[in-house]
Amino acid sequence: MLAGWEAFLRERGHTPELVDDADLWSEWREQAAGDDAVVLLGSSRIQLGIVPARLSERLQGRRVIQLAVDGAAPFAALEDLAEDEEFRGLILLSLVESTLTEKDWPGQAEYVAHYHNQWSFDRRVHRKIATERQRLLASANPNVSLLRSMQLFFSEGRIPAPLWLHTSPDRSRAVDPERIDFSRLTEWRLSRLRQLYAAAGPVDEAEWFALGERMRSVIARLHERGARVVLLRLPTCGEHWRLDQERYPRGRFWNRLTERVGAPAIHFLDVPAMARLPCYDGSHLARPEALIFTDALADELKRRQIR
Amino acid sequence: MTFTSYTFALFFAAVWAFQRLPLPWTARKAFFLFASYGFYAAWKWPYLSLLFASTAADWFLARWLAGQTSLPRRRLLLSASLVFNLGLLATFKYSGFLFENLSRMFGQFGVPFSAEPLSAVLPVGISFYTFQTLSYTIDIYRGRLAPARSPLDYALYVAFFPQLVAGPIVRAADFLPQLAEPKKPSDQTLGFGLALITLGVFQKSVLADGVMAPVAEAVFDGGTVSMLTAWAGALAFAGQIYCDFAGYSAIALGAAACLGFSLPENFRAPYAAIGFSDFWRRWHVSLSSWLRDYLYVPLGGNHRGELRAHANRMITMLLGGLWHGANWTYVLWGGLHGAWLILERVCVRIAGGWTVWRRPMVRALLGLGTLAVVCWTWVFFRARTLPRALSIAGAMLGGGEKTASVNLALADGIAALACVLGLVACHIWLRRRTLADVCARAPWWARALVFSVLVFLICTMPGRDRAFIYFQF
């Protein structure tokens, strides 16, 4: 029966997929120690936009640790690293203006709590075996579980489509252009963004800069013990960028914030090799562009002598 | 170590293989103890010290107590055990709650007060093993139990891994005699143990985590709720908490059975209960019987008049609620159950003799009513804050929004409700039967078929890993 289900999924184009969860995050989090670690914080943009292996190669073999979490703002993880005396490395913090809100601030707190309260020998062994199982079997992915498939079959007459985002063991992600229609995805993202911005009402600048101040104090704590933080603005393109700028004009938000925070900042528009990269859905990079972005980032870090 | 992790599967296979070796019984028991400490240390080894402390304290106190004839000294030693064990609980489980409430109380009078909780992390299983060690010492104080002769046996009673972190809460009188003779489980016991483990993993991974939890989370952690979504959330949580905890208990009983031990049953088809006292004879039986024997009865039980009995019921249920967690929502949940028990008692006194209660239709309605009230009361257990609990509980009584803003997929809701209905039907069927009887009577091919289907569903319905709910208590 099990072999039959696996064969059925494979026949429908499903492939083994790694599940990105709090255990996998914790597996990497515990490696964030010492002064040679380069930690990537952010959400989906940095998970897709930077290739850890390539960055490590370009930074003379430094350990690059991907701690971004899809759909969650990185500030809780930043605070956690600031509390961790063992960490004295470099943090590349992908900052998206719309996520600097009270509501979004604790976005990754669940992962941080999992790492401190649940991550243990038990979970470590479990995750290692789960990783091997997920790399071997298409049926090990919850997205194509029998229950999900049955629900979709009875409600829409189909089973789940193969995943179009692949997660690597290093937690970086890559989009599969064969499995998704980019123009439909871009349209969907734009309509969601318009709804989101419309529902949110005008930007509360006082709250935004107060949270910027909170971020500054967290970064100052890291800088005090020799760790470094670099703020990154990853590429956003076309209509998506226009909507972002309409709501958060760069001069009024990004520039003022980066001046106050006291950490170096790299904005994609200021680096020619980054500025012309196309985004497949308006706000994320596909793997070929991610490699170019990673190279450009490594060059920029070297040029500014950020270590 | 989590029962549903691959780590536990490897660990258990190693323990089971070891216990088959032709070694002296004492060596095997020592190995069980060593394995149990390893099982606990796989989570956070520093907390082993608390387990050692609790074990050692009651071992010595109980021995001294047994050797004393003077009542004041016996009382003193018993008090020492109570203070030590309840002190551990207060320090590691309730200090944050206490300080938060003190801070709020002083704040009312404009007096600033702030203190950090003594432990940020709740040591897993502390509520369970402290209750076990306490019951051991109290039973010796009451003269119902002789102290264990071997420290190895006693330490294994406290730390035996199947029941260590989330029960069942085992009594020494039930467990220590099992350590007297070498255990060699029969093939039948082994088969039943494996079936229980499989059933437990199915209940936890597939039903609780895969089907029920997404619906409960959407409703309890989401936005505004309508009457329909509130009921969907409450029913899904009723299913989730049963499958989560009964699943854990089934794995515990199954693992113990595979090693030749017998642990007490923790659930007896609770959603088929008729009335609240019946519910508490079926839900978390090892805790409710512990509370009865070591709290309700010493308070006077029902031997000091009706009013005092009501007060005792309420105190027992309030403290039972607080045992579950350091939050007013748990206290309220316990208090509501206390109120239902008192109300039931009053009704039984007034109209208990009427023959109408024996009619099948009336009994079915009473059962349905019990289930509805139990589900409504679960809201206070699950909600993170009191306002959220009141909002959902109010919506269930018709006070909700016309349209809900919670992100609940219809397909998820239907699947969860179908499983809850199936669960209730199973409980009705099992109301006067036990699973062991059903398994013993079923033909081999039926058992094999059910076992295969459960394994297939476990393998094909991977969900998000969630910690066992009772690990936090």
Helix content of chain B: 55-70%
Q: What is the end-to-end distance of chain B?
A: 16 Å
Tally of individual domains of chain B: 2
What oligomeric state is this? heterodimer
Q: Structural class per helix/strand content of chain A?
A: alpha/beta
Secondary-structure-derived class of chain B: mainly alpha
By DSSP (H or I, 4+ residues per run), the number of helices of chain A equals 14
Q: Order of strands side by side in the largest beta sheet of chain A?
A: 2-1-3-6-7
Q: How confident overall, as mean pLDDT of chain A?
A: 92
Q: How would you spell out the order of helices and strands of chain A?
A: HHEHHEHEHHHEEHHEHHEHH
User: CATH architecture of chain A, please?
Assistant: 3-Layer(aba) Sandwich
Q: If you compute it from the alpha carbons, what radius of gyration of chain B comes out, rounded to the nearest whole angstrom? A: 23 Å
Number of β-strand runs of chain A = 7
Unreliable segments of chain B (pLDDT under 50, ≥5 consecutive)?
A: none
Q: What level of helicity do the residues of chain A show?
A: 40-55%
Give a structural overview.
The complex is a heterodimer of chains A (307) and B (473). The longest helix of chain A is centred in the last third of the chain and has 20 residues, at 205-224. The model of chain A has no long low-confidence stretch (mean pLDDT 92). Chain A has helices at 2-11, 22-29, 44-49, 52-58, 75-83, 109-118, 121-136, 146-156, 182-200, 205-224, 238-247, 254-261, 272-275, 287-303, and strands at residues 37-41, 63-66, 90-94, 165-167, 173-175, 228-233, 265-267. Chain A is an alpha/beta fold. The radius of gyration of chain A is 20 Å and the shape is globular. In chain A, 37% of the residues are buried. In chain A, strands 2-1-3-6-7 form a 5-stranded parallel sheet, with helices on both faces. The N and C termini of chain A lie far apart (54 Å). Chain B is mainly α and 473 residues long. Chain B has 2 domains: 30-181, no CATH class; 188-472, no CATH class. Chain B has helices spanning 6-19, 25-44, 48-66, 71-108, 126-141, 151-159, 161-164, 172-175, 187-220, 227-258, 276-280, 285-296, 306-324, 328-351, 360-382, 386-399, 410-429, 435-441, 444-460. Chain B is globular. The two termini of chain B are 16 Å apart. Classes of the chains: A alpha/beta (307), B mainly alpha (473). At the A-B interface, helix 6, helix 7 and helix 8 of A face helix 1, helix 2, helix 9, helix 17 and helix 19 of B.
